[in-house]
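Run log // design_07
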């Protein structure tokens, strides 16, 4: 964001994990986090955003079905129907959306022995630097990647005029 107003107007969904495996007739639970939706009064008191209008959809109901959690609209249950891959999307109007990839395996397949997707995840999906010269440390957790491959992790900024990255293996300072 170029201005504080632009930054305050940004809204997004994010998740620690966006790839899931499930067997036919079994379920997996998905959940998204959010940033930028809640509002704060002049005293800093937060008013949580109402996500009841959030929608969950599947790209292929013949592969996997999805049902929004009635107690938490940012969560859903996906049920494997038939072997294949489906994209599950959560969206709030046209403001924010996030896609999950769900691979459904036959009921007799032990998904713990199937090759897992390799990816990096972090609890710092959104980093807000409060001014010029400020920094933050970000770390990642490797999923399905052996420790011997950690040296291959590359950190870089896509806009070095805005932020510089100083890598250190699984961590980086921005």
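design_07 sequence
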């Amino acid at each position: 964001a170029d201005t504080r107003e632009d930054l305050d107007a940004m809204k997004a969904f994010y998740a620690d994990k966006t790839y899931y495996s499930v067997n036919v007739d079994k379920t997996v639970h998905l959940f998204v986090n959010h940033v930028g939706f809640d509002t704060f009064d002049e005293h800093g008191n937060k008013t949580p955003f109402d996500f009841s209008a959030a929608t969950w959809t599947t790209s292929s109901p013949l592969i996997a079905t999805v049902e929004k959690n009635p107690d938490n609209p940012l969560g859903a249950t996906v049920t494997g129907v038939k072997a294949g891959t489906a994209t599950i999307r959560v969206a709030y109007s046209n403001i924010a959306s996030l896609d999950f990839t769900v691979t459904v395996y036959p009921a007799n397949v032990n998904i713990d022995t199937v090759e897992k997707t390799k990816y990096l995840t972090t609890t710092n999906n959104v980093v807000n630097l409060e001014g010029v010269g400020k920094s933050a440390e970000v770390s990642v957790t490797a999923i399905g990647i052996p420790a011997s491959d950690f040296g291959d992790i590359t950190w870089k900024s896509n806009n070095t005029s805005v932020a510089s990255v100083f890598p250190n293996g699984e961590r980086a300072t921005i």
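The longest strand covers residues 96-105.
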